[in-house]
Amino acid sequence: MQGILETRVRGAEQLKTDENVRAAVLGLMRITLQHACVVLGEWIANTLRADPSKLQKFTGVDLKDFVAPADGELIGLLSELLVAVENLGWKSAGRQYWETASLSDPLRRLVGKSRANVETVLLAFVRERNDGVEGHGLPGGYDPEADVAVIRGLIARAAPFLPIVADDSETLLIPPLGGRDGTPLKTLKLYGGDPICYRRLIATSAGKIRVEAQISRALLKREPVIFEVPNLLLELPARSAPEYSICEPGWAPDWRPFVLIPDRLAAIQEFTGRTVELTSLEEWADDMDSRRCMVHGDGGMGKTTLVIEFLHRLLEGETEVKWRPELITFYTAKKTRWGLQGLEHISAQDVGVADVAVEIARLHSTKPLDRSWYDKSPKEVVQKLAGLQAQMHLKRDDHLIILDNTETMAKNDDDIRALGSQINELSKHVGRVILTSRRREQIEAFPIQTESWSPEEGLEFLKKRGRTLKCQSIILAGPSTLKTYSKALNNKPIALEVFAQAASAPGESLERSFERVQRMQRQDLGQFLYDDAWTRLAPDMRHVMLLMSRIGDVIDQYIIQLCCRVANVNVAAASEAIEESKGIGTVTKIQGILQVAFNPEFSNYCAERTEVLDGKIVPSPENVSWIQKRYREFVTDASAQVRDRNTRAFVVPSARAAWKSFQDGNIDQAFVHYEAACSEDPDNGYLYDRFAYALFSQRRYDAALEKAMRATVLLPDEPEPWFTRGLVEARLGRADDAVKDLNRAESLGKPKHLCELQRAYAHVHSDPKDFESASQCVERALRLAPKDRFLGRFVAEATAFKNRWLRD
User: Fold this and answer.
1) Topology of the domain comprising 245-450
2) Closest by alpha carbon to 351, among 302, 413, 405, 297?
3) Are 398 and 326 in contact (CB under 8 A)?
4) Reduced to 3 states, what is the DSSP secondary structure of residue 462?
5) By mean pLDDT, which of 110-119, 127-136, 206-215, 266-275 is the weakest?
6) Distance CA 341, CA 318 (A)
7) pTM over 0.70
8) How far is CA 465 from CA 103, 130, 270, 313, 468, in A?
9) Any coiled-coil ranges, and where (predicted)?
10) Mean of the per-residue pLDDT values for the chain?
11) Which residue among 69, 173, 408, 549 is least packed, with the fewest CB closer than 10 Å?
12) Within 13 Å and on the Cβ side, how many CA atoms surround 804?
């Protein structure tokens, strides 16, 4: 529908008279508003009929306002409907519509402001229309630029709740929510691909509505039509009761908190482990100076189960906690779940802290919330909620708020930072907060991490669950057998739960159940665990992950470097992304060498996944083959026997690969290996010294000096690094530094004749050149040279020096 409307707007811009532009825009405005209102109205009707219990959240919009709407009435109706769908669960439906934005010059002329939301613009347009000939005023005063800008803004801001055109080009669909397909719209449809503008809705017998309308065949051409549809809009059921309940703990007669929490996710007799985590929650609860607690860990570890168990133990008096909150609110932002039926989408809506605040306010308000709750910033909404609580005589220390699955509340770095700030506001003004997240949120909070069970805990859970499910294959299995299956499923609570459910089916063996769970893990467990983390990664970072996953589950530092090189990504940034995206894998250093171990589920998740970057599908088979080839070469080089005067430099594989590549003449590749080796073995001064000498030999003097200086810092009492540093400084013409450092090398034991020759180089490269001092150094060097097997080579170098620099 959005595309149809935008095409017609482009046509309106081509009309030749201002009057025709105004007429076209008015028609498009009525069509847009009507379709938006009908979508929202039918969504409300469908939602209430599917779940009458939601009537308690319905704000009471009179859907009979649809019967014969005028332009101004449609604007008001749209605002009321947006509030209604927000209350019923279509989160943030009106946020974009009510968002204040800078206005273009034509709209500034119309509205008289530089910033406004679309509703304000529409009302200004209607007022101007009423002053014109269309509203029985005086003709003239048209502004076609402003008219077109109005309809463009309306279509753009109403896009989330405009209908979608079905494949038959006649049926319109309500936009899909919660992962479901779009629901067919009953009241409106297209005729030959053209939209309609209805004039009246008339309720008839047999639950029908007669629609009297006009087909908009072109911008200024219409034809009448009458049709009947099921009466979905004009009948509504009645309201139901509130959702909060009063808890009356028998062990604490003076404590009667209002609670909104789920039932236990694990029965008392089945809850396993988490003793340390529960104790930590108890400690946090009694530390009234701590406003926030963060329970974080990989997906499927039982974070939500843990927090809900803690809440029930708190209400049942099974803990040592002294704190007695008067209000407990549980709010989940979970979008998917994974179980025996595979992956299920339970919500596709983006929610945030403002939605939490509105939900709490709605549940405690005796009247429906007005729109002021929906058109403010998250900070302002939190402050409104704090004011409402003050009217209820509820202090911020009396309210415990649980925010579940906060990782779905933010998709990029800016959102994550904003989320942390908003949670701070909520905990500062409204209540103490426990949040669960797969990532470690950017917020100061008491941290509690959940990890996989131990094999013993996995065994304990399977035994408990087997008894509950009356699963004979589990009940009769020995401890070692169950431990084996638990380990094979990484002792992960979510996988063990599904394994137990599968094994409890009639005639199922443990092995077949295990194979079934493995198939399910390969199919969609990765989607459940990693979709949110994947969307947060930048496209080039996804490229790196896909490249690494194509190579193997365990990736060493050199593979990481090769993958980052192909994707043009910094190695440190890649390792940081893996560490921050919990569940993808672990980053460790073994003897100083970086290593990444991907979780098996993540490897399966990436197995057939690709991305499109700059119009190309990645990772390409060619890039994967190149990485594999280079890695094989690296392994070969890294296993070579090093024959160097200082083998202490070549401890790590990358250093040995650097030496071998250099000997084979692969100079650039050698330097890549040297850099990797310095990262793996950063405190090895001998390595930096040999790297510096290799750079020196290729006349890369500036880079060589940097490495040589690092070597002298690490090995201040060794002569070789000072000698290398001196010879590099000599070639750079830094004579004073060179002489000083060569003197230092000599004092530490470097042979005097070698130092004298390098001092000669320093003198001839200085500015101005000092040939006399250079000559004296060479003569001393020749006199002092020992008569050993290296004498001939030394004399040849000294003679060559004299022939080049001292011939005259």
Assistant:
1) Rossmann fold (3.40.50)
2) 405
3) yes
4) helix
5) 127-136
6) 34
7) no
8) 61, 70, 6, 20, 5
9) none
10) 87
11) 173
12) 12
Grade residue 63 by pLDDT with cuts at 50, 70 and 90.
low
Which two three-digit tokens encode residue 484? 């084996």
User: What's the pLDDT score for residue 591?
Assistant: 59
**Is 58's pLDDT higher than 70?**
yes
Give 213-235 as a DSSP string.
Answer: EEEEEETTEEEEEEEEEE--SS-
Q: How many CB atoms lie within 10 A of CB 797?
A: 12
Flag whether pLDDT at 137 surpasses 60.
no
Cβ proximity of 685 and 715 under 8 Å: yes
Bridge partners of 327, per DSSP, are: 258, 399
Fold adopted by 537-634: Arc Repressor Mutant, subunit A (1.10.10)
pLDDT greater than 50 at residue 350: yes
Measured between alpha carbons, how far apart are the two ends of the chain, in Å? 90
Q: 182 versus 666: which is more confidently predicted? A: 666
Q: What is the pLDDT of residues 73-110, one digit of tens each?
A: 888 888 888 888 887 888 778 878 888 788 888 998 88
pLDDT digits (tens, 9 = 90+) for 502-512: 999 888 899 99
8 A C-beta contact, residue 652 and residue 592 = yes
Residue carrying the six token digits 């057998």? 481
Query: What pLDDT score was predicted for residue 567?
Result: 92
Q: What is the mean pLDDT of residues 261-282?
A: 93
Domain-wise residue ranges, the chain: 2-230, 245-450, 455-528, 537-634, 639-805
Structure tokens at 479: 């401890």
pLDDT for position 391: 92
Q: Which two tokens stand for residue 656?
A: 């040995």
Please calculate the CA angle 184-190-191 and round it to the nearest 5 degrees: 140
Distances (CA, A) of 779 to 754, 765, 799: 12, 18, 10
Residue 58 CB partners (closer than 8 Å, separation 6+): 44, 48, 84, 87, 88, 236, 239, 368
- In this structure, are residues 270 and 464 in contact, taking their beta carbons and an 8 Å threshold? yes
Q: Is the pLDDT of residue 632 over 60?
A: yes
- What is the spatial distance between Cα 99 and Cα 92, in angstroms, rounded to a whole number? 11
Return the CATH architecture of domain 639-805: Alpha Horseshoe (1.25)
CA distance linking residue 711 with residue 271, whole number of Å: 57
Amino acid present at 323: W
DSSP type of residue 523: I
440 within 8 A of 419, measured Cβ to Cβ: no
Residue pair 359/331 in contact (Cβ under 8 Å)? The answer is yes
Amino acid at 148: V
pLDDT at 727 over 90: yes
The pLDDT value recorded for residue 482 is: 95
Name the pairing type of β-strands 554-556 and 221-230. Answer: unpaired
Lookup: tokens for 225:
């039509």
The pair of three-digit structure tokens given for residue 649, joined into one six-digit string: 């430099």
715 neighbors 745 (Cβ within 8 angstroms): no
Q: Is the peptide bond before 768 cis (omega within 30 degrees of 0)?
A: yes
Q: What confidence category does residue 681 fall into, taking pLDDT thresholds of 50, 70 and 90?
A: confident
Torsion angle of C-alpha atoms 683, 688, 689, 693, degrees rounded to 10: 170
| Amino acid (one-letter) located at 395 | K
317 to each of 166, 252, 398, 747, how far by Cα in Å? 56, 8, 17, 77
Cα–Cα distance between 5 and 12 in angstroms, integer? 10
Angstrom distances, CA of residue 677 to CA of 143, 672, 685, 718 = 69, 9, 12, 21
Reduced to 3 states, what is the DSSP secondary structure of residue 470? coil
- Name the packing angle between helices 539-551 and 571-580 (round to 10°): 90
Distance CA 247, CA 376 (A): 33
- CA 698 to CA 709: how far, in whole Å? 18
Q: Which residue has the tokens 């409890």?
A: 504
Given a contact cutoff of 8 angstroms between Cβ atoms, the answer to whether 323 and 285 are in contact is yes
